[in-house]
Amino acid sequence: MGREVSESCIDSLLTEMVSSYCNRFYANKPELAARRIEAIGYQVGHQLSERYTMERPRFSDHLEAIKFICKDFWSELFKKQIDNLKTNHRGTFVLQDNRFRWLARMSLDPTAEEGVPQDPAALAESKAAQAMSMYLYFPCGIIRGALSNLGIPCAVSADISNLPACEYPESYVLCVVMHACSLCSNGHCHGQL
Amino acid sequence: MIVCVAVVGHQSFTEADDALKLHHIVHCSLDVVDERVNNPKKSGPTLNETFLGLLYPTENYKVYGYLTNTKVKFILVTTDLDVRDVDVRNFFRRFHAAYVDAVSNPFHVPGKKITSRTFAERVSNIVKSFGLSST
User: Which residues form a coiled coil (chain A) (predicted)?
Assistant: First the structure.
């Protein structure tokens, strides 16, 4: 498929992108940084969806397009398929990846000090979780861009959790929630979940 | 001989001689594309294909259509009378590859006309080799 780039380059680029937008361009304005990063992801997703749908027959309905995202598109980006897809049949889909590759080399370190009272530890952990969540805006943007290019405008958000009992103890479970407005029967919906 | 190749997304961009007449042909053929896509009973087994085939022959021209998953349409207008199906499919496949590369340019604004010279060169190469292979 042409030229390829090493994965560590992608990791470094993403880390630096989040760092630049959060600490330099929009320091102390995490919402603006998040919106900017998501917009970059949107454009990338738009372009990638053109490329990855090239040799394929056309999708017959929206579910086919979403399955494409879960299987082929996810494989191209993250080298694996989605592990679980759920829907409420009213326009909301939850995609679950049990071992999200782009966070594989990151660790949350909530145990900064030992013997610290509960509150500061919880605070540190939520700060770390918030920092971690900045890395999710880019993949969310990619998914939103790809879907909107396939004719499904939607709102995408993501959540991570660390399941110690799961097969890969050091991995993060990524849950992506997609709300496709066109599939929603609620006429007044504006992407609210 | 290929007279015109058009890429139609939400706006149309065409590369042609005798622009007005060909614009007219391309616009008419877009109606046929929409009709083909929206009437599944008529299309039958070709519904899910990207290649829509011969849209309709007019006067001296033949018009072929191709629809991508991202709802971008390619229209090919040719004056050749004996064009093989497989040649046109080949043409569209290579054209699609060139289009994807042009659109992947980070400086390209989606929805605007493609201004890449590389794309123009690739397309004219594909057009030239189309003429050669069909003889």
Answer: none
